[in-house]
Write a sequence for this structure.
């Protein structure tokens, strides 16, 4: 079954809904949640930050930054637990990659044990690059880089 979702650029008024999504994921070793309002507001204003909507309700977020005109960095992807495992992130990433169709290098970092995220990105052709970097976000946990080169 394909779920109907849409992406919309986030605005400051979305901050509480985004916070609720992120807080629902807080505490997992493999994911560093955005649990600070100001951090979310900063991300909305400084990156291409989208909310994932289903039936007009915010159920997730996905974001990227342009490092230069040919290099995009996917800085976030999160779905509330009840909507995980239904192919929604796959659809959202497909939509983001469509927006980035003219960008040659797209990368991200993820936890080396975050199988879902690694499988998801691998299914679009992203490949692990280099060795995991320890304590990447300062939370004591490693991250591995994945890169899509076109
Ligand atoms: C990672 C995350 C965004 C994936 O979202 P999702 O909607 O559950 O993923 P999807 O249902 O679209 O599945 C996409 C792919 O992930 C993989 N996947 C899904 N469930 C999986 C599982 N239980 N175990 C391993 N891989 C799995 C599969 O490759 C799947 O593709 P397929 O259906 O063609 O096999 C979501 O689980 C999440 O928000 N996790 C917490 C936050 C997080 O870790 N974000 C990523 C940071 S880089």
């Amino acid at each position: 079954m394909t779920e109907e979702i849409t992406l919309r650029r986030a605005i400051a008024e979305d901050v509480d809904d985004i916070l609720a999504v992120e807080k629902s994921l807080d505490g997992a070793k493999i994911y560093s949640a955005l649990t600070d309002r100001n951090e979310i507001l900063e991300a909305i204003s400084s990156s291409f930050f989208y909310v994932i909507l289903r039936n007009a309700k915010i159920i997730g977020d996905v974001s990227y930054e342009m490092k230069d005109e040919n290099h995009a960095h996917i800085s976030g992807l999160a779905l509330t637990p009840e909507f995980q495992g239904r192919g929604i992130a796959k659809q959202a990433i497909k939509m983001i990659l469509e927006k980035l169709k003219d960008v040659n290098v797209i990368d991200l970092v993820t936890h080396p044990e975050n199988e879902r995220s690694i499988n998801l990105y691998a299914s679009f052709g992203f490949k692990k690059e280099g060795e995991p970097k320890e304590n990447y976000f300062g939370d004591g946990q490693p991250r591995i880089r994945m890169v899509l080169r076109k």
Observations:
- The chain is about 25% helix and 35% strand.
